[in-house]
Amino acid sequence: MEVVVTRDELHKQRHALAVKHHHKEMERPLIGLVPTMGALHRGHRALIERMCAECDVSVVSIFVNPKQFGQGEDLDVYPRTLDSDLSICRAAGAHIVFAPADEEVYPPGYSTTVSVDGMTARWCGQSRPGHFNGVTTVVAKLLGACRPDRVYFGEKDFQQLQVVKRMVRDLDIGIDIVACPTVREEDGLAMSSRNQYLSPSERRIAPRLYAALKRMAACYSGGVQDVESLIVEAKQVLYPSGDDTIKVEYLAIVEPEALTPRERAQHGDRALIAAKLGTTRLIDNIALTGGEVG
Amino acid sequence: MEVVVTRDELHKQRHALAVKHHHKEMERPLIGLVPTMGALHRGHRALIERMCAECDVSVVSIFVNPKQFGQGEDLDVYPRTLDSDLSICRAAGAHIVFAPADEEVYPPGYSTTVSVDGMTARWCGQSRPGHFNGVTTVVAKLLGACRPDRVYFGEKDFQQLQVVKRMVRDLDIGIDIVACPTVREEDGLAMSSRNQYLSPSERRIAPRLYAALKRMAACYSGGVQDVESLIVEAKQVLYPSGDDTIKVEYLAIVEPEALTPRERAQHGDRALIAAKLGTTRLIDNIALTGGEVG
User: Tell me, what's the ipTM?
Assistant: First the structure.
């Protein structure tokens, strides 16, 4: 595995590996990318393993993107665990890790922003103004630097996934965005680099987020389509015996592409939640499938 | 020459031609693009001919981009001359003309903007708010749809050229932007699709713009570096005997990359002018080279 910190090194390594992995029968090798902010956990590992199984050349980027953090957010304390991250990438089979410094990604004079309107004003975009502009800008930039054919994102950040899909479609970028299922702790809590901020008592109740989403999906499967009723069900799980430790920021059922809110749930819709436990903000989501719940 | 109106057809034609023009000794054929808004003149033709001389597959896009016109600007009356445009493309040797409708470029749900800050606030950006966001968005989109290796722009729209270069560099798009000299009428007027808006009397005095720029460049070559003095020289050409038909919007000497204004001119700087003749807005520019004037 090669660890590179500049775009020039990345291009060289990417080219060298592409030549090495070039199959005679193929026009050119398939390049994969998993963009991350490091602090890698089993969720990232699943993305990297899937990329390595599907692609000829597998690239992981590790970059804590300052543009997607707002004022007062956790940029300064966001976990940086490069050694452990590299071990995980190596074990998962990545060929290249691209771990640039801030000034490599945004050199002096950098002036460009890629933004997606509309769907970014809602949900996480409402409490994190500018966040999605930071995400789309850095993803556009990483797509330019890595030139992948396939990019792997977790469904845990569902709005981010849909925003990136929108950008890629709108700008005809011509890469496949591969959405991968959320990886969870045994008690259902969605894997997140921010879970380590939770106190032991917060950690114990954090699985209620997913339990609430599962309750909504189960009720929907059972025939309940009225969103208000589904939210009442979820709240019974979130606030047992009136315990209000979980501060819900939003809880909604949305059309899964533009993320517009529904009043009556439909097959394929998504239930979304964001909540604070103390100072830690967690998000999760689930598909409403009518059939199984997962 | 193939004329295509959808991105799908464009991809198919581009691929078919790339296979046909594939040289054994090359890794892959070189794809060129000249993005235009139609109303093609000899300036465009020079771009297309240069592309055809340098590239294996030559694409011209013709799209009057509504996003780069402001309210009250000339979108509705902008000249549409597709038949003549196609003849020019054919004569110049283009392989593909991509002439999409508005809804092909911006289909329902389209939500993405690419913007360059800072340098777009000045000069044309000041009198045409939103113009450069429209330019960078459509160019990013056309680069996605056409996937060229080289894109040809005229130096006449000098700020546009620098803004596009900035975007391509910032997003690591990895294509060459080729800047081509402004093509002029015999009397020096820069070729522009908007020249046809000029009345006969306006047309007669329009060459003063370039004459004024040439005077500045000649004075700079002669040792004058003070920008205020250079502008006084230019105004003597623009307003002979107090004739104020030409309404100057800006006249400046700028550093040629970020386009920041200078007080003392330096080698390689650019003199920029924008002016209105009646309702027609014209722009032009010249390099300060210290040596020859051209």
Answer: 0.95
